[in-house]
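Technical note accompanying the year-one report. For the benefit of new consortium partners, we illustrate the data format agreed upon in the data management plan: each record pairs a sequence with a structure-token string. No post-processing was applied to the example shown here.
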Amino acid sequence: MSNEHIIILTGAGVSAPSGLSTFRGAGGVWRDHDVMKLATPEGFAADPDLVHTFYNDRRANLARVEPNAAHKAIAKLQVDCPGRVTLITQNVDDLHERGGSPDVIHMHGSLLQGLCMACDARMLWTGDMNRRSACPKCGAVGSMRPDVVWFGEIPHFMDRIADAMETVTTFISIGTSGEVYPAANFLSEAKSLGAYTLEFNLEPSARSGKFHESHMGPCEDLLPKFVEDKLYWSLG
């Protein structure tokens, strides 16, 4: 079906099997840390050293893990599906890219990018960052912050996401509670446009009953079989 447009939304449940902590689930990052101190502009202004240390640790952890079968299955669907597949992620890691996905919309930013508060430049940043880090573009010292979307900030690429949603025929939510806005609107928007909706999650979410299909279990186990079947019927 060449006119099919699948939109996939992924969350922390996709990357958790690789060894990255979720934020809101049992043992999630925000259960052990004060979100207002680590993920708000105000927290960063109050204690940049604390925030830099937190994100430096997360960046180092990311370098030690590998994409899992869920990332690879999503990439296979993107590459091999005869229709259009748009991948939107709430994750700030690069495991989708390393898993083979050719195009990823990072609506919450990326751990591997820095943002200069002096000139608004964004650039690749794979090492540590601190209050003495200088912007490679404008040279300003102390102006760098992680290019992740903090609470109270507007997610990235919302215009591109809105354009994609206009033609969605299938919406798939994977490894996310779907409770954080604006991503929380995607399901209802897709259904209003007549899209078929599916959820893959480790356990039922508050929105599970609103999907046409809900599949519970480890994403890394469920998705390879789903993609294999999907491609069989699409290409057959």
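Partners are asked to follow this layout when depositing records. The chain has a mean pLDDT of 92.
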